Structure prediction request, 187 residues.
Amino acid sequence: MSPAASVEGGERIRLFCALRLPAETVEALVAWQAEEFGHVAGVRIPSASHLHLTLAFLGHRPVGEVERIAGALRDAAAAVQPPLLSVHRYRETRSVGMLALDDEEGRAQALAVDLHGRLERLGVYEPERRKWLPHVTVLRFRTRPQLDPPLPVLPPFSPSDAALYHSLLRSGGAQYEVIESVALGGR
Prediction:
């Protein structure tokens, strides 16, 4: 039973859609995070289960919308060939450190744009003004540490699938549960 199935239809849950990373990419990133950031004070390193590429953050939505949202993700994922991604650079915003990715042939971008349109037509998503950036959040902080780590040595990779996540806010940080996972390009 999915988390969405265990609550009432009018209850609101925090949702996002994301591309999941291959296991070997996650393992390499976890080792790199520990080596580069394990000694840095005032930062929090996201766990392996938190490494993904967010396609669309939906915020709190009624549980009754989960099936329509999952349907939009299924349709968008089926319409695109799996993207090929590679690490481009490390970047910090006001609260996160991320690895910005190159998106060979723009397939991840095409998936994000298609999904955003589908979700917007459902009335469950308002696209951001800025262009979607393929990235993996690898560090969280309250005060920007202004780091310049060497990039992880990773071969280009294709996300394993796309997923609709339920984000549960806990005292120790968010916990992510996959509601539904879908293949890319009909694989």
About this structure: The beta strands are 12-20, 43-44, 52-62, 84-92, 96-104, 135-141, 161-170, 173-182. The CA atoms of residues 161 and 183 lie 5 Å apart.
